[in-house]
Design brief:
Blueprint lengths: L6 H14 L4 E10 L4 E9 L5 E3 L3 H22 L9 H13 L8 H20 L1 E8 L2 E8 L5 E2 L1 H6 L10 H14 L7
Antiparallel strand pairs: 1-2, 3-4, 4-5, 5-6
Length: 194
């Protein structure tokens, strides 16, 4: 269980509990992921298999997400007040998201637009550096967009990752999520370029 002094871990646990509602959980654990600059705790739950369909994006969705990733450069320049270039790193995205949350004027970027732009940029970075690709994941009537590793079963849901943090105004999660993805892919024996 998280300590009462760690609000980010408490927030992550609450999000996990919401996701697990109604699912049969066979295992829960905490994983420690580290690199030279950070340590990240990932809360992991193993659930009984359930039916889902993972399929490639439609060409229209793929084009839209690519355009959104390009817009992210302008977004970061607008909110950080400095020139940025593609590819935007997870650290760039963390800074831009935090600046957007704190801005008195969101310059027309609604929460939905921010989720779309930054989520697309994060997925683009993962695709470029971790050998991942966009996919559409269907579970019953629910459809989500994920970035999935091409050579192993590792995935993340960039849009959901951001949207779930809007109510709590949690920041600093892009770099942490990237580290977890990178380590999980490495553990699976797949070479990423990062």
């Amino acid at each position: 269980m998280p300590s009462s002094e760690d609000p980010l871990e408490s927030s992550a646990l609450a999000r996990q509990e919401q996701f697990l509602a109604g699912r049969s959980v066979s295992e829960r654990r905490r994983e420690l992921h580290e690199d030279a600059s950070r340590s990240v705790v990932a809360l992991v739950a193993t659930v009984e298999p359930y039916h889902e369909i993972v399929e490639p994006l439609s060409p229209e969705d793929d084009d839209g997400f690519s355009r959104n990733a390009e817009i992210a450069v302008n977004f970061t320049e607008l909110f950080l007040g400095r020139t940025t270039t593609a590819p935007l790193t997870p650290a760039d995205l963390d800074q831009a998201f935090s600046a957007w949350l704190e801005a008195a004027d969101n310059r027309g970027y609604t929460p939905d637009a921010t989720v779309a732009v930054l989520g697309s940029a994060f997925a683009s970075y993962c695709a470029d550096t971790l050998h991942m690709r966009w996919a559409q994941v269907r579970e019953g009537e629910s459809v989500s967009f994920a970035v999935v590793a091409i050579e192993c079963d590792v995935r993340a849901y960039p849009f959901d990752m951001i949207a779930k943090r809007l109510p709590t105004r949690e920041t600093g999660f892009f770099a942490n999520a990237y580290l977890v993805l990178k380590n999980r892919i490495a553990e699976a024996g797949v070479r990423g370029d990062a």
